[in-house]
């Protein structure tokens, strides 16, 4: 069962009852990440191949399909994202979205305010893993 509850009123009124009935109640709240469930695909990726697959999924999710006409740029973006994800892994940095944010900002990428809130929800990270 999925319940859309932007104000949290349904959760407050029914979550205890639903838990008693055996339901697993999961909250996804982008406005309050400290009390929200999440899925971090970088935590699941163990090998370089899996990291490359995560990079491809993330890039393709953010770029509309152009029917193959811009495949050169798409493949470049996938390689670029894969490079940064591997850099984080090889440096022993926390493989999380807070770690990606300063890395991308340091390369001059623009990050929208909504995404910035999610990326900066927790954790600190130094760019030293990829600086020369």
TrEMBL record:
Organism, scientific name: Candidatus Endobugula sertula
GO cellular component, one term: membrane
Domain of life the protein comes from: Bacteria
Name of the featured protein: Uncharacterized protein
């Amino acid at each position: 069962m999925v319940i859309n509850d932007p104000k949290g009123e349904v959760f407050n009124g029914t979550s205890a009852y639903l838990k008693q009935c055996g339901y697993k109640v999961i909250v996804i709240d982008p406005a309050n990440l400290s009390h929200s469930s999440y899925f971090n695909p970088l935590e699941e990726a163990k090998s370089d191949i899996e990291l490359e697959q995560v990079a491809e999924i993330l890039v393709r999710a953010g770029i509309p399909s152009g029917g193959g006409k811009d495949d050169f740029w798409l493949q470049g973006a996938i390689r670029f994202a894969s490079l940064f994800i591997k850099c984080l892994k090889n440096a022993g940095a926390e493989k999380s979205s807070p770690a990606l944010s300063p890395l991308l900002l340091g390369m001059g990428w623009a990050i929208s305010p909504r995404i910035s809130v999610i990326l900066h929800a927790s954790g600190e990270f130094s760019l030293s893993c990829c600086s020369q």
